[in-house]
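Let us practice reading a record.
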Amino acid sequence: MTSHVVALLFAWVLVNQAGVPIPVVPSLLAAGALAAQSRTGLLVPVVVTVAATLVADLMWYGLGRWRGPQALALLGGSHDARPPASKAPSDASWRISWAFLFSSRSFQE
């Protein structure tokens, strides 16, 4: 795979993971086909994809850590991210929330 294909794949996955609704599956299939055709193996596209995903996830984490309530308000969420003390979620509801969060991350498109 050439360097501009690797850079394009990184940018495409990064933009998708940053929140822009662009289809990333066709680009991953094309990158896999190019890797098979050029005999470079599947390691390069996988490493580039994982790196782009980690960069986007760290960006979202940093934004939430730095300006959590303001970011939620900007994205249309609640102004106060903390639940009231009288309505604190139970342990079971937190487990359900985490299960939904991690199961929904598996399906990007």
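A brief commentary: Residues 3-78+89-104 form one domain.
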